[in-house]
Amino acid sequence: MDTAYPVELSTFRARVTHSMWMDALRRILRNPQGFIALSGMLLLAFAAIAAPLITWHDPISQDASARLLSPSWEHPFGTDELRRDLFARTIFGLKTSLALSFLGVMGGAFIGVSAGFGVGYLGGWSDALVMRLVDALLAFPGLLMVLAIVTILGPGLQNVGFAIAFFTIPGFVRLSRAQMLAERNKDYVLAARVIGANPIRIIFRHIVLNALPPLLTQIALAIAGGVLLIAALSFLGLGERPPTPSLGGLVNTSRAYLQVAWWYPLFPGIVLALLLLCLNLLADAINEAISPYARR
Amino acid sequence: MAAFIMSRILQTIPVLFLATAAVFLVLRLIPGDPAHAIAGEDATAADIQGIRELLGLNDSWPEQYVSWLGDLVQGDFGHSFRTGLPVRRVLSIAFPPTIELGVVAYVFAIAVGIPLGVLSGVKRRGGWDWLLSGYTMVAVGVPGFLTGILLLWVFAVELHWFPSHGRVSFFDNPIDSLYHLVLPVIALGTPISAVLARYTRTTIAEIVGQDFVRTARAKGLKERHVIVRHALRNSLIPVITIMALQIGAVMAGAVVIEQVFTRPGVGRVMIEAIGSRDYLVVQSTLVVLVVIVVVANLLADITYGLVDPRVRG
């Protein structure tokens, strides 16, 4: 690999000491799989964020004469049964999926990691109690747990977001507790304690920084899981309310028009598959980049 | 062996308690009042109070849990709010089609996943390994319901090779039943088979490098014999574990796939119950599903003992 760089660059690189994060990023980009996944993700995220700029059609307004049109320059992904532009609906659906999953997972990760670090550091009965509860929650298949939550909260996007947050908590508690247990007894923590740092400072300034990388892999995987759950819930009609578009919802409504509109399930389906694929590949690449065991 | 099986069964009892407690807690921990949800948007305070009385929601959590569990153990699941039918009857109608779909999809996933995993694990970076990588990528990227829609579109709507919806009971007409199952089984089984194949590959690849495999080869055994009798048998424990863990995914996936192919079953019952906030139906369905998952793990534990005498200890 190194021989591909000009000599000056490799000598330059040898002198510079990289931070852990830059090193991880460099490893992800050097791994072809990681490069594809990261660029794909950035492209999809850009499309989602810049959705109103990319398409001149409105995802909700209806165009008088455009019912179930096949793809064209005017409507790259065709139009749906209510004369709406499917490209706009797909892009806005992508935006909803990605934003909701990201926010839900971040919320769940924050609660889960705080609890995991907390009980991992404290140990004792609080640890035993929380971990048994986590074991019991992990016995549930994720989708079923989310269905249970949506039963109580009622369908709707915001509630799906809460359900995703709740569903990601147990996994983060378990992982961050394990990280805390592994780091807690290392020499650098002892050193910090010897110089008189208080527990809060030890946890946040020292342990958290060292325990974070494996959590990144878990975050990427959880976001993929969240996107899948949102799609499944929208598909079951328990996600967003019409006319808000979502990837799973588009695939669901397309079922009634399979005979006349091949483009209807195809394009939202491809975007959903690409999103899931990129997130999963990215998780693999992050894992390879930060874990010494997984490196090739 | 009998003692081993007994001890495993005894160990399952506390897990079942925890699992029912988890179902109970998930439905209680979430902010939101089930009585409010059942009563609807424009209910009076008295209506809500009435429902709270009826459900016993005014008792303390431990009291509610014990009374619910007591009824459950005696086979009393309560009554559906929407239809007034006993939940037990609703479930006895809902589960057979779902279990039928789940079992066949599970067999399909094992039949595809394990051989693919073994073939690619024995010769890493070989042809089968590349095939597996491609297969896993597709299976991970394409959710089951999307595979389902694509299969429905190509093989039912366009080609008319398979029926697009409905279910025939296996006991009424086995051939027609399987015919209706082909597409849903592929949609449900493909992602599961990819997970199984990935784990099998990793395990086999580790085992093939060990000394006893080299010994078996050195003895002059046929490669087939070395792999099936020696390597595969020794890699079965982790593979059985992951197989048992997938049962939860099969049951959850079945709920979605049933909707794609408009099959009756747990999926339809759950969706309708959630739509009408039929609380007890959802709670009971979850309990039955969780018990199925726990029992599957118990069976996996017992199988370890059969496969590997060292586990019986």
List the helices and strands and how they pair.
The complex is a heterodimer of chains A (296) and B (313).
Chain A: H1 7-15, H2 20-30, H3 32-49, H4 51-54, H5 86-122, H6 124-138, H7 142-153, H8 157-184, H9 187-194, H10 199-235, H11 247-254, H12 263-290
Helix pairs in contact in A: 2-3, 2-12, 3-5, 3-12, 5-8, 5-10, 5-12, 6-8, 7-8, 8-10, 9-10, 10-11, 10-12, 11-12
Chain B: H1 2-29, H2 34-39, H3 45-55, H4 61-73, H5 87-122, H6 127-141, H7 144-158, H8 174-208, H9 211-218, H10 223-234, H11 236-260, H12 266-275, H13 279-307, H14 309-312
Helix pairs in contact in B: 1-13, 5-6, 5-8, 5-11, 5-12, 5-13, 6-8, 7-8, 7-11, 8-11, 9-10, 11-12, 11-13, 12-13
How would you summarize what this structure contains?
With 296 residues, chain A is mainly alpha-helical. Chain A contains twelve helices and no strands.
What does this structure look like?
The complex is a heterodimer of chains A (296) and B (313). Chain A is elongated and about 75 Å long. In chain A, 73% of the residues lie in helices and 0% in strands. Chain A has one domain: MetI-like fold (Orthogonal Bundle). Chain A has 12 helices and no strands. Chain B has a domain at 94-274: MetI-like (MetI-like fold). Chain B has 14 helices and no strands. Chain B is globular. The chains are: A mainly alpha (296), B mainly alpha (313). At the A-B interface, helix 6, helix 7, helix 10, helix 11 and helix 12 of A face helix 1, helix 6, helix 7, helix 11 and helix 12 of B.
What key phrases describe this protein's structure?
heterodimer, A: 296 residues, mainly alpha, MetI-like fold, 73% helix, elongated, B: 313 residues, 14 helices, 0% strand, globular
